[in-house]
Amino acid sequence: MTLASTATTGAPSGQRPQLVIDKVFKQFGVGPGAVTAVDHVSFDVKPGEFVSVIGPSGCGKSTLFNIIGGLLDEYEGDVLIERERIAGPHKAVGMVFQEESTFPWRNVIDNVAFPLELQGVNKSERLDRAHHFIDLVGLKGFERLMPSALSGGMRQRVSIARTLVFQPQILLMDEPFAALDEQTRLLLGDKITQIQQDLNQTTLLITHNLTEAVQLSDRIVVMTYRPGKVKRIVDIDLPRPRSSDVVSSDAFGHYVAEIWADLREEASRGMADSESARRGGSRG
Amino acid sequence: MAATGQVKDLTATMGWARGGRSSLRSTNLIRIGLLLGMGIGWEALSRSGLLFRDVVPSLFSIWAAIWKLVMNPAFYANLQVTAWEIFASLAIGGGLGVAVGIILGANRFLGAAYEPYVYYLAPTPRIIFFPVMIMWFGVGVASKIALGALSCFFTVALSTAGGMREIDKVLIRVGRSFRATPWQMAMKIYLPAMRVPVLNGIRLGFGTATVTALLAETKLSNQGLGFMIMQIYSRFDMPSLYGLLIIVFILAGVGNLILGKATGTSA
Amino acid sequence: MASPSFSQSRAFPILLGASTFIGAFVALEVLLRYGVVNKYVVPLPSQVLMSLERIVVEENIVGRMRDTAWEMFVSCIAVIVLGVPMGALLYRWQPLRRALLDWVAALAAAPLVLAFPLFLVIFGRSATTVIVMSVITGLAPIVIKTTEGLLGVRSVLINVGRSLKMTDAQMLRMILLPAALPVIFSGIRLSWTFVLISVVGIEFLINLGGLGQLINDLAERYDLPGTYGAIGFVILVSVIFFMLLERVESWLRPAR
User: Fold this and answer.
1) Which of these, A7, A97, A98, lies nearest to A51 by C-alpha position?
2) Which of B95, B263, B259, B136 has its CA nearest to residue B195?
3) Residue A14 lies in a domain
C-alpha cells in the first residue's frame, strides 16, 4: 500500500489544478472506539478532467464526498478550490447524491429550474435553461411530469440536470447510478461522458463500480479499505471522445484487470473485517 | 459501515436541528424556567390591574381556593357522582364497543357493511345528542351515563376492530392446526393479542367519557363536578373556578396516567 | 367462476349496511304507529324527515350555517397560523423540543374544552369564546404533526438544499414545508375535526350562534321531530366535512 505522492502526480501539462485535496483526514469518535474514515488522502482534479475515486464499501468514499462538498466541516487537511480553502458548500461545486433526490412535489422542469430560482433568475430564462439541460439528459418531453411518474433512472437524470443547470465548475457525484440496472447505467454513462465532453465539465465521481470508472474517467484514484488512503492513481489512456463501446476494447480490459487486482485485495480485507465482526459481535 | 452510517447522521441533519447531546439537565432547566416565567408573568398581570378585576386572579388566591375546595365535603360528593358516571359510561359503552369491535373485526363482511358507519360517526359533536338522552332517560345521572356510553362506544369499537384485524392470521391457523377449542382459541390466542388494542381503546374511551360526562353536567345537572363548575361560574368566583378546573385537569391526567400504566400504553 | 357473485362484490356490504338502517327506520315507524314505543319520547321517523324541510325554511338554516361556518373558518385558519410556526420552532430547536413536546402531547389528550366557563367570563357569551376555545382544542395536533413531519424530511433533500447554500428561511419554505406537507395535513385533518366538534359543541352548551344553538332551541320548544331532525342534519354536515378532509389528505399523500 503506497501512499500517492502529492497533487502534481501525472500532470503532463503543468496545468493549475482546479480542485485540490490535500492530506484530508477524518476520524469519527474519540479514543479506542474511534474510526478513521479518511486517512491523509491527497489528489487533485484539473479543469475539464474526469476523475473517479474508487474503493471497496467502507473505505470512506462517501465521507470524502461530503467533505469535498462542504457538508462535513470538521476534518483535518485542506480542500482547495482555485487555491482557496473551502468553508461549507462551495458555489462552484454541484453535488449529485446517491439517494433519490428529486423534489416529489415539483414537476421535472420545476425541479431542474430550482437552483436558478434560488439565484433569482427570471422565469423565462430559467425555463429556457432548464429545457436545455432536460434535453441534454435525454428527457425532452417529460418536463411537465411529476417525479412519481418517472423511473429511478429518469429521476436520477433529473437530479443531474438540476445540478448542471447552474453550470457548476466542478461536478461532484456520489455513486449516482448505484440504484440502476447495468444497461441503464451504461447508457447514462454515455450521456454523462457526452455532457462532460461537450461542456468540458470538471467531474469527480465517487463509485464502487470498476467498469463504470474506467469507462468514464481520465484518471482513477484507488482507495484502500478503512482507514481510507490513496492506494494508487491510474491514468486512463483510452481515446476521447469515448462511448460505451469502449468497454469491449482490449485496453479497457487491461485497465479493469489491473485495477481489480488492487481492489480485490482491499475488498477482501473489507469482507474479512465484516465477517469477523459478525462472529465476534464487535462493531464492523 | 459505521463510518458511512455516522456520516449520514451528521450530514443528515440541518445545522440547527443537530442538537447533539442535549442533556436531561437542559430539558429540565427549560421546563422550570418556562413554568417560573409563566408564574411570574401571571402574578404580575394579576397585580397590574390591567385586566378586569379577577380575570387573572393572584396565584395565591387560586391556591387558597384549591385548598378550600379540597377541604369541602361537597367537592367529594360531586366527585363521586362524576366518577360514577364515567365508570358506568365506560363499562356500558366500552363493553358494547369491545363486543361490536370484535364482531366487526373478525368478520370481514360485517366489517365492510357496518364499520364505515362507526368510523364516520365517530368524529362528530356527539354532545348534541344530549337532549335526546334527556328525553329518554330524564335529567338525572342516567342521561349523562347514556351520553357518555354513546361517546366512548365509538372509540372502543374502532380500536377493538382494528386490533382484531391486526391479529396475525398465522397465529390463528396455528391454533386451529392444534385443534384448539373455541375457549382455548379465545384465551390463548385472541385475548393476549387483543390486550393492547382493547386496553388502549378503553384508555382513549376514558378520556372521551370524562369530557362528555363533565360537559353534560355543565349543561343540565344538579350534581357532579361539571355542575360544581357552573355553580362557581354563576358566582363569578374566579379563583375557585380556576382552582376547580385545575383540580379536574389534574384528576383527568392522573386517571389517564394510571390507565396508561395499567394497560401498558403511552399517552 | 368467471365473474364474482354479487355476494362477493364490494357493493354488497355497503348495501347491506345501508339497508339495515333503512330497515331500522321502517321498523321504528311501524312500532311507533302501533304504540309499541312511546311517541312522546321518540318521534315518527317520517315526521323527522318532514321536519327537515320546516327547519330549513323556518329556522333560518342558512344564517345559522353561516354563523357556524364563520366560527369554523376563523378557528381553522388561526389554528394553522399558530400551530405550524410553533411546530417549526420545536423542530428547529432540539432542547426546546425535548422539553416541550411531551407537554404538548399531554395537552392534546387533556379535556381543555372544560375550561369554557372561564372564557365565558373573559369574553362573554360570544362567538369569540367559541373561537378561542376551539382554537385551543385544535392546536396540539397541528403542532405535533408539524414537528413530526419536519423531522421526517429525508436527509438527502436537506443536503440538496445545503449544497445549494440555501438560507434557513429558503430551506423551510421551499424544501422542508413542501416535503412535510402530507404529514402536516394529517395533523390539520385531526385538528379541524376537533375544531368542528368544539364549535358545534360549545354553541350547543352556551346556546349561541349557529347550528349548535338550533338544536338547543328546538329541544327547549319540545319540538321532538325538529330536534331529532336538526341533530341528524348537524351530524350529516360533520360527516361530510370529515370525508372531504380525508379526501384531501389522501390526495396529498405521495404517490410513490
Assistant:
1) A7
2) B263
3) no
- Which value does ipTM take for this structure? 0.86
Q: What's the pLDDT tens digit per position in B205-236? A: 998 999 999 999 999 888 899 999 999 999 88
Q: Which residues pair with B9 in a beta bridge?
A: none
Beta strands of A10-125 (E only): which ranges?
19-28, 35-45, 50-54, 76-81, 84-85, 93-96
Q: Report chain B residues whose CB lies below 8 A from the CB of A62.
A: 4, 7-8
Is residue C212 a contact partner of residue C200, using CB atoms and an 8 Å limit?
A: yes
Evaluated on CA atoms B174, B175, B176, B178, the torsion sign reads positive
| 3-state DSSP assignment of residue B221 | coil
Cα A111 to chain center, whole Å?
21
pLDDT at B23 over 70: no
Are A69 and C163 in contact (CB < 8 Å)? yes
Q: Are B226 and B216 in contact (CB under 8 A)?
A: yes
Domain ranges of chain B: 66-263
CA A84 vs CA A49, A92, C250: distances in Å:
19, 12, 50
Out of A89, A103, A146, closest to residue C163 by CB: A89
* Of the partner residues B2, B7, B8, the one whose CB lies closest to the CB of residue A283: B2
> For domain C61-252, which CATH number applies: 1.10.3720.10, 3.30.1490.20, 3.40.50.300, 3.30.200.20?
1.10.3720.10
Q: Which residue of C has its CA nearest to B226?
A: C114
Alpha helices in B92-138 (DSSP H): 95-106, 108-121, 130-137
Does A72 contact B1 at a Cβ distance shorter than 8 Å? no
- The 10s digit of each residue's pLDDT in C6-50 is 556 667 777 888 888 888 888 888 888 887 777 777 888 888 888
